[in-house]
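Researcher: Please predict.
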Amino acid sequence: MKKTICTAAALTLSVCLCACSKSEKPSMYIKPCEFSKETTEILDLFDEELRFFDLSLDDTVKSTAITVWIYQNGEWVDYGGTYGNADHQTARIGIQLNESEYELYSIDEDGHTKYTLPFGEDIFAGLLSVSSTPIAEQTPIELNKEIPIWVKIGTDKNAMRVTDTTEDFRDADCSAGVAITFTARDTAVE
């Protein structure tokens, strides 16, 4: 009887410990910011063109890159972005993405820095369908792995398949597109 009770107790304890270890949050992640109801109502005025994301990094990250990809002439091309050495383990970024430009806001305790990259024209003009998909939940960050954080695609066809940010945006069947990616790197920018 004692053996059975001890075995049952040990089994219960091991199940509890396994459950606890599986629910641990990753140390490095990017996720949509959580705001108060009032702030969310104000942000809704921007018609989903402005999004904020929280980043959590560890000391293995030496630099970060936010890259803007544009679909032009049948292929995705690196259109530019921001690159720099990692000086914070937590950060907040804001991204405004519309048809004619991309704006990045890097927000920290000292204020914010704004970076603007104009596209030169409305890249979605004349298209029948446009889909915009930012990340919707906490996403683990792996060193040197590109993470799509916002993908906006359009087509001149009568139907389109909406792209999920967990998929490779380069495989999207589209006529135009913009993708914003984040990469945490294990090497510093010189």
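Model: The radius of gyration is 21 Å.
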